[in-house]
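I'm stuck. Protein, please.
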Amino acid sequence: MGIVIRDVGSDDVEIVSTFVGYLLAELTGGDAPNVVALKQTALEVLANNSVTGLLALNEETPVGLIMLNECAAIYAGGRFGEISELYVSPQQRSHGVAAQLVAAAAAYGQRTGWQRLEVGAPTQPEWKRTVEFYERNGFAEVGPRLRRLI
């Protein structure tokens, strides 16, 4: 049948929080996040009108997720989208699922009037394949992203 991509709804909070938990565990080398806190945060984020999620399904089984935030900046020409989370289950990787999610995100952004999509990729060289994936899918590396926790 193939991959079907649909919008995330409020009833998808369990799979969204599970997939983001898996993503965080991979990015941190196995540190498992607090599942209860993650689910509560997912409920709050999914209720935010500036956040959109797209879920990839293979025969009705969730296999991938991309979460988008609407941002605005003068340098970006106005409103744009930011990919905050992108996760594909390990058995579905290298099968085009992530590329389909990025393409669906770009199509959503175009319909919404965004000027661009941005993403913060993990550090290189450890996550070199991730950066190369985004480059193959039309992204250009413009420098590191920094953060300050408050």
